Amino acid sequence: MNEVPSSQVNEGLSSQGRVVAASGTVWETVGEELVVWHGEDRTLHRLDPVGRWLWDLLEGGLTITQAEQLAAGTAGPEDGARARREVRDFVDSLRQRGLVRLVPLPDGGPALVGDDA
Amino acid sequence: MGAPVRTPRAPAVEDGAAQARSRVGAAVGMRFQVVGPKVVVDAAHDLMADLFADDYVSAPATSADLLRYHVTDSAVIVNGRRFEVCSAAEAVETMQWHLNQTVVAHATRTMTGLHAAAAAQGGRLVVLPAQSGSGKSTTVAGLVRAGWQYVTDEACLIDSETLRVLPYPKPIGLERGSWRLFPGVPRPVEPHGTWLVPAASLGNAGVCEAQVPAAVVTPRYEPGETTRLHRLSPGELVMELAQSTFSFNEDGGRHLRVLARLARRVPGFRLTISDLDEAVELLGCVAAMEGAR
User: Fold this and answer.
1) Which of A50, B174, B245, B289 could cross-link B195 (Cys pair, CB 3.0–4.6 Å)?
2) What letter does residue B5 receive in the DSSP assignment?
3) Eight-class DSSP state of A112
4) What residue of B is the nearest CA neighbor of A39?
5) Chain A interface disruption, residue of B160, B236, B238, B255, most A CBs within 10 A
6) Residue A21 to residues A110, B41, B256, B281: CA-CA distances in angstroms?
7) Does A73 touch chain B if contact means CB atoms closer than 8 Å?
């Protein structure tokens, strides 16, 4: 995935922004991977096991920030910053492909899982 | 090599002429009828014996499904659409081509169709999805010659519920570059372009019944390379299968569900082919391995 400045990802989002699958997408898990069909632009995408894990987290309701925290936590202290950046890159890559849309949560709105505010 | 067979000038079949002939066959729930000069209809029957045998009707046909090919010495006319031809061989090839299109369009209303060849050994079905020119027909011809049961060289039609592949045992279409690999196989009619080979002329193992695949192998002919297998992840397998799925773009969600179920259930491989006999051996190993699981 291309490196994308994180400011692009969070543009217009609150820190509790969420990811929602775009309309017309259908996905299936196969083994540790995930395959997503974008029905509107008729493209098929494969996510590797890490991508599938992140998709499950985000599609399951975690905010981007929460997913970053989780990824950083599992990566360990030395790789935490890299893990956060990769989550943002991943989300941006999904967004650029039209597979997800980013939904800002109202300021002070409830976090769905945990609360990193 | 026999001389080209030209369609004789015969009275129209509607006149009830002695030279006229009519045959009815079936393929994946569709019935079709070929009418025309005896020589053409007999040639079609000999080539498409399994389809004419009416044994592979997997779904009840309705009268609306009857496809009528009217063959003359210069054209194949189906449902009012006319295809110009110049020989019996070309007439049969044209009919076969049209039948393929129609069967696939008909079947994929409810099933998922793969542009794929398939054959079975020891009751284990191996599906070979690939684009045209990848070597799937040549490979399946090699398998049948080695004693495998034939399923198809064109379309694997997968029941969306059971994942069973329905046989579509049309004649195997070999392009000119592969003809030298099958010396001694009778060629009663000089091919117009594609040599349509009845599977029975390559081996006597018969046609495989509908069953769930044991493995999926995507063949790719690459002369000069080493013939080898490469294991695909389930996700890679879905991507490969989608590329070979008829009309995937028109109904991607439905087909994706079927392909994903298949990929969860069976292993996938990519087969690089340079030598046909080596490829057949490797595929025998795949079938044996899946039987041992």
Assistant:
1) B174
2) P
3) S
4) B252
5) B238
6) 20, 55, 17, 45
7) no
Tell me: pLDDT of B53 over 90. no
3 state SS for A7-72: HHHCCCCCCCCEEEECCCEEEEEECCEEEEEECCCCEEEEECHHHHHHHHHHHCCCEHHHHHHHHH
Q: Give B191-214 pLDDT, tens digit per residue.
A: 888 999 999 999 888 888 899 999
DSSP assignments along B63-102, one per residue: GGG-EEEEE-SSEEEETTEEEE-SSHHHHHHHHHHHHHHH
Q: Show the tokens assigned to B160.
A: 């969306």
Joined together, the tokens standing for residue B220 give 């790719």
The pLDDT score that the predictor gives to residue B280 is: 98
Q: Name residue A37's beta-bridge partners.
A: A26, A44
> Which of B235, B257, B259 comes nearest A33 by C-beta?
B235
Nearby residues of B144 by Cβ (< 8 Å), 6 or more positions away: B119, B150, B172, B199, B202, B203, B205
Which range scores top for mean pLDDT: B18-27, B34-43, B59-68?
B34-43
ipTM: 0.82
Give the phi and the psi of residue B266 in degrees, each rounded to 5.
-125, 150
pLDDT value for A106 = 67
Cross-chain residue pair B234–A33, CB shorter than 8 Å: yes
Q: Which residues of A touch B265 (CB under 8 A)?
A: none
pLDDT, tens digit (0-9, with 9 covering 90-100), for A70-91? 999 998 888 999 999 999 999 9
Q: Which two tokens stand for residue B35?
A: 């009418």
With CA atoms as reference, report the closest residue to B7 among B43, B39, B33.
Answer: B39
